Amino acid sequence: METVAPIQEIIDVIKEAGGEAFNLCYQCGLCDTVCPWNRVRSFSMRKIIREATFGLTDIETEEMWRCTTCGNCPRQCPRGVKIIEAGVSLRRISTEYGVFPTSVSPVKGVAASLLGKGNPLSEDREKRAAWAEGLSVEPYTEDMDILYFPGCYLCYDPRLKKVARATAEILNQAGVNFGILGDRENCCGESIRKTGDEELFKRLARENIKNFVANGVKKILVSSPHCYHTFKNEYPEFMVNFEVVHITQFLFELIEEGKLELTKDYGKKVTYHDPCYLGRHNGVYDEPRNVLGKVPGLEIIEMADTLEDSLCCGGGGGRIWMETIKGERFSDLRLEQAVGVGADILATSCPYCITHFEESRIALEDSETIEIKDITEIIQEVI
């Protein structure tokens, strides 16, 4: 097989992306033991690390695209190896040369859609605010307290539009002075950055930052943990800082301040799934559970693999756009765990997680056994 990139080039790219810490790896294998892939197939992050140390990574295979950037392996690494950053640096080489395995090839179409329409779903920019039709949702102006940034999937996906609408209805019920950017909103760029397309990420980030600044935005409310992570931790690379709040944090604040009353009895057993980019990457564990704990009649039951050890749904790292064959989907395992503890509802707070869980639910013998809901949908039902 012809080598696409010289060995030294691979080494240099890894170093530029902070991957020089690969040299710290002493091959203990902890990363392999906690990787969710090893629950469904054999996969060795340790092997990729070792090969990358010498610039020997084969960029034409799917192996380096398996990582969902869930954050479990760097949390366990005793040597501080920047596993996610170095893995993304390898993907940058593939992106630069346009070398993608078959299962990863949809990323090319996603990149084109992001470039031309500002979203990964090939939807018209003019329809970005269509989810809010019939609701009291106004365009954002500088005198408003909060910009609500639904994100791409909540704006366009039929299932996830329900989450955006539930959020808007809750905000209106609580008297929050908020608005949206509508067709001025672009994808946050988090997931395309994890596929290695750094230039496209920078373009999307700069366009969003320009719109935020031009409209006097100071506080941003998001529904997606991926938007939350990017605005909070990555946009400061562009010398800007906005106050960023995830909807679960804001809901708890509204309830605690008495601005949102939960009056109806729910009467269901609910288990909560911690999204990787809300939990492990950003340490938000308590607020979602605190919100659920305020719901009358709701019983919270915990699954295995929760909090810091939460099992990834499989959608991070750009894999939301890639095909994962049956038998290798983490979301199938997670749904089995939720059903196993007797939950009526599997609740979460991430559009990627909901997408994957809904797909896995369809595959259940009895798809009515359990429902998938965003926390905002539960709150909407009890106000």
The major β-sheet equals: 5 strands, parallel
Q: What is the CATH top level name of the largest domain?
A: Alpha Beta
What's the number of structural domains?
A: 3
Shape: globular
Measured between the Cα atoms of the first and last residue, the distance is: 61 Å
The helix fraction, in percent, is: 40-55%
Beta percentage is: 5-15%
Q: According to CATH, what is the topology of the largest domain?
A: Rossmann fold
Low-pLDDT stretches are none
Q: What is the string of helix and strand elements?
A: HHHHHHEEHHEHHEHEHEHEHEHEH
Structural class: alpha/beta
Arrangement of strands in the largest sheet: 1-3-2-4-5
Number of separate helices: 16
**Average pLDDT rating:** 92
Rg computed from alpha carbons, rounded to a whole number of angstroms: 21 Å
Secondary structure: number of strands? 9
Structure report:
The protein has 383 residues and is an alpha/beta fold. The chain folds into 3 domains: 97 residues, no CATH class; 148 residues, Rossmann fold (3-Layer(aba) Sandwich); 122 residues, AF0625-like (Rossmann fold, 3-Layer(aba) Sandwich). The protein is built from 16 helices and 9 strands. The strands form 2 sheets. It has a 5-stranded parallel beta sheet. Helix 15 links the parallel strand 8 and strand 9. Helix 14 crosses helix 15. The model has no long low-confidence stretch (mean pLDDT 92).
Detail the topology: elements first, then pairings.
Elements: H1 7-16, H2 30-34, H3 45-53, H4 72-76, H5 83-97, H6 106-117, E1 138-139, E2 146-149, H7 152-156, H8 158-173, E3 178-180, H9 190-194, H10 198-214, E4 219-222, H11 225-234, E5 243-246, H12 247-256, E6 269-272, H13 286-293, E7 299-300, H14 330-340, E8 345-348, H15 351-362, E9 371-374, H16 375-382
Parallel strand pairs: 1-3, 2-3, 2-4, 4-5, 6-7, 6-8, 8-9
Helix pairs in contact: 1-5, 8-16, 12-13, 14-15
